[in-house]
Amino acid sequence: MSALGQKRTLFSTIPSGLWGTLKEAAAGSLALAAAKRDPNSNELIKAAIADFETSSEGSILAMRERFSQAEPTECVQRSLASLREVSAIVDAKAPDEAAAFKTWLRKISQKVAEAAVEGSFLGFGGVRVSDAETATLRDISKALDTAS
Q1: How far is CA 105 from CA 49, 69, 70, 84, in A?
Q2: In angstroms, rounded to a whole number, what is the distance separating the alpha carbons of residues 24 and 123?
Q3: How far apart are CA 80 and CA 144, in angstroms?
Q4: Dihedral sign computed on CA atoms, order 99, 94, 76, 116
Q5: Angle (CA) 32 34 35, round 5°
Q6: Model confidence pLDDT, tens digit, residues 80-107
Q7: Could you tell me the pLDDT band of residue 67, with boundaries at 50, 70 and 90?
């Protein structure tokens, strides 16, 4: 599964309700589209986006199949393990682009976490980023070896 798919999986284990989940999915897609259009995106980011767009591994069906028998905490642990693996590979294979790539992945996580208000009722109350999402963001930063 791609690093981008891992992010979708990580935050899908945190309950946001239907609209929240849709907003979070849209935030990830918008971040990819923005990076694709950005002339300053490095080649590694562009290659990752192209791979994500053409690979069946990042599809909702592939993720559903991969995690169908897993508990939410297991989904999170698998996804974080994959992000650690991606981080190590990028550090080894593309050291000049690794920091920018991992920072970009972390920023997508932040956008997804901020996409929907958590714990609100009919639009009242709630917080922009829940405690669970904050903890997940810390775990993602740690897995990617980036500052939180």
Answers
A1: 11, 26, 24, 12
A2: 16
A3: 9
A4: positive
A5: 65
A6: 999 999 999 999 999 999 999 999 999 9
A7: confident
- Transcribe 23-42 into DSSP letters: HHHHHHHHHHHHHHH-TT--
Residue 121, strand partner residues: 124
Q: Tell me how many domains the chain contains.
A: 1
- The Cα–Cα gap between 30 and 42 comes to 18
Using CA atoms, how far apart are residues 92 and 96, in angstroms rounded to an integer? 10
Query: Domain limits at 107?
Result: 3-144
Residue-wise pLDDT tens digits, 18-63: 667 777 777 888 888 899 999 999 999 999 888 888 877 666 667 7
Task: Record the pTM.
Answer: 0.77
Distance in angstroms (rounded) separating the CA atoms of residues 141 and 82 = 13
Residues 18 and 9: their CA atoms lie apart, in Å, by: 15
